[in-house]
Amino acid sequence: MPDATTAVHRVLTEKFEVAPADITPDATLESLDLDSLSLAELALSLQEQLDVKVEEYEATKATTVAGLIAALQAKLALAGAQ
């Protein structure tokens, strides 16, 4: 299972064709040209890769790459503790 950072970068580059140089910690998902449908697809793809639930409020247009990764890392840590 990939870590959160790897999964986010992989989904953004492979599924949404975002240039790796554009994926910076402070980039918002909206600045990466993800619309509402893309956000839903992003959440689903991350759920499949990481086996954790990604809530709508965790992947919004205003969410930064760093914020999304932090939320996923917290979920993975919690899941690992159980």
Descriptive overview:
This protein is mainly α and 82 residues long. The chain has three helices and no strands. The protein is globular and about 35 Å long. The chain starts with a helix and ends with a helix.
How do you describe this structure in short?
With 82 residues, the protein is an all-alpha fold.
Large-scale geometry: globular
Mean pLDDT: 94
Order of helices and strands: HHH
State the helix count: 3
The total strand number stands at 0
Distance between the termini: 17 Å
Please give the largest β-sheet: none
Strand content of the residues, in percent? under 5%
Keyword list:
82 residues
Q: Could you outline the blueprint of secondary structure elements for this entry?
A:
Blueprint: H1 4-15, H2 36-50, H3 65-81
